[in-house]
Write a structure and sequence with these properties.
By secondary structure, the chain is an alpha+beta fold. Helix content is 37%, strand content 23%.
Length: 498
């Protein structure tokens, strides 16, 4: 190396040292590098004083907003924004530490540096003190979630973190117990399992048909779902759920009162749909024991309480139908069906303040129920108006119905057995065979319903014959219920395997 080159190198080194030691790191000379962001706020190309003013303005705008929310499935708490303190000076110091020059990067600063704002919680704030009293909430982790959101000046809700060894103190908002009528135990048990523990979140919509989903071949099991939907509807009437869709039966079912029944029909898209208008969730609890159904809605305590009331508008008179019987003495009569009058009824839901003051009264529904005729058995010697006389019991017709039921069950068993060479799971039976099975089941349900009606009407006119038919009828129902239970088991086994 020549003396001239050595001299030049010394000059360059001296210049570098002078530059490093010189006060070039003044605020006027600094511009924030490209891609620089603090709390989602772009600051590239700005001086430090400009950045500080910008951040102060953004923080002030953010603090002027509505309260933040701490949320979970079952509760939410409003968090005032003055709970948080921002330290912009420390924020800028941390930013400069991440972007300061080194000898290796003397002529440039680091690009694309993103940092949050420095935030602290006011430990003596009443909102934090109130939250700390809830011993089932992990306050430290919940506050960490809050700070993560606030340090970016975001508006999203923060999640409540619960203690793993603590239970959320849910209360029973409303409950009922109702006697279970004669229903398929297998179908009812399946539907209860589908419904139990279901959570309806704040603001969400609940659909009975979407929640209680049956295997394809059991979609005709309407009595069981009507019973469950009716019980659930009675709970919804005692809360602030908005009733979006509900259908009444033509006549009042024996297990409930007028205006409180529900008709569910998946094939006709008749559903029970409600919306949770509260800011907390509800959990459905369902069980059965000793012939009784227990159902409840659980959630966080609410200040407002609700109660349903019915108002009868008018009554629709019932007809009296007479039937001849050769077994009755002249002049004797027997009532074989009391029947009931029809009526038009309205259902209202009242809301009450904690001091029981009436707040609102809302009409929920107006239903019209058809009358059920009174049926009287009379002696053949009596003169009864022709328009009030029904045909005598037709024993041969009932025999034909039983024969059809026997044939239907036999055909159904053959269809199921024909699939044993492959697999017996119902949801992978060939579609044409599955539809055939479904049609057969629907036909059997319809015939059983028809038989129930015939027994109500004819049982006193057939005496010993009726006992024989009733025994056979029960055997057929038990056989059908066993088949349904088998299909439900197979359906569950297949779904668990998938």
């Amino acid at each position: 190396m020549t003396k001239q080159n050595s001299f030049m190198l010394m000059i360059i080194n001296a210049i570098v040292i002078l530059i490093i030691l010189s006060p070039i790191n003044t605020e006027a000379a600094i511009k924030m590098p490209d891609g620089s962001v603090i709390a989602n706020i772009p600051i590239e190309g700005k001086t430090e004083s400009e950045v500080k003013q910008l951040l102060e303005n953004e923080v002030a705008n953010w603090q002027a907003g509505d309260e933040l929310l701490l949320t979970s499935d079952f509760e939410q708490y409003a968090v005032p924004r003055d709970l948080f303190e921002f330290d912009i000076d420390i924020t800028l110091t941390k930013f400069n530490e991440q972007t300061k020059r080194t000898l290796a990067s003397f002529f440039m600063r680091k690009k694309n540096v993103h940092i949050p704002l420095q935030v602290q919680i006011k430990d003596d704030h009443e909102a934090l003190q109130a939250l700390s009293k809830l011993n089932y909430i992990n306050v430290d982790k919940t506050v960490d979630h809050l700070i993560t959101i606030v340090s970016q000046l975001e508006e999203s809700d923060a999640s409540i973190v619960y203690m793993k060894d603590k239970e959320i103190p849910l209360e029973t908002i409303t409950e009922l117990e109702i006697e279970i009528p004669e229903l398929s135990d297998a179908v009812l048990t399946y539907a209860i399992d589908e419904l139990n523990d279901h959570v309806i979140k704040a603001g969400d919509t609940f659909s009975f048909l979407q929640t209680v989903t049956f295997p394809e071949a059991l979609l005709s099991s309407t009595k069981e779902v009507n019973f469950l939907a009716t019980a659930l509807y009675n709970l919804f009437l005692q809360t602030n759920f908005e009733i979006l869709e509900r259908h009444a039966n033509e006549t009042v079912p024996s297990y409930t009162k007028a205006g409180q029944d529900v008709l569910i029909n998946g094939q006709e898209s008749k559903d029970l749909i409600v919306k949770n208008l509260e800011n907390t969730s509800y959990e459905i609890k369902v069980s059965k024991s000793k012939g009784q159904l227990q159902m409840a809605l659980k959630g966080m305590p609410q200040e407002t309480t609700y109660e349903s009331k019915t108002k009868k508008l008018n009554e629709i008179g019932q007809r009296t139908l007479y039937r001849y019987s050769k077994k009755l003495d002249p002049g004797a009569q027997e009532i074989i069906q009391q029947g009931q009058s029809g009526l038009t009824i309205e259902v209202y839901r009242n809301s009450f303040a904690p001091d029981k003051t009436l707040l609102t009264s809302e009409r929920i529904s107006k239903d019209v129920y058809l009358p059920i005729p009174k049926i009287v058995l009379v002696s053949t010697s009596e003169d009864v108006p022709e328009n009030q006389l029904e045909n005598e019991a037709d024993e041969e017709n009932i025999d034909e119905v039983f024969d059809e039921l026997d044939r239907g069950l036999s055909n159904l068993e053959e269809a199921l057995e024909s699939n044993e060479n492959g697999t017996s799971h119902i949801n992978i039976v060939p579609i044409d065979q599955l539809l055939e099975i479904q049609d057969q089941l629907q036909d059997l349900f319809a015939k059983i319903a028809d038989l129930e009606e015939k027994f109500t009407t004819y049982e006193l006119t057939m005496e010993e014959e009726a006992e024989s038919y009733e025994k056979k009828f029960k055997e057929l129902k038990e056989e059908l219920d066993d088949m349904i239970a088998e299909k439900i088991f197979e359906y569950h086994a297949t779904n668990e395997g998938n």
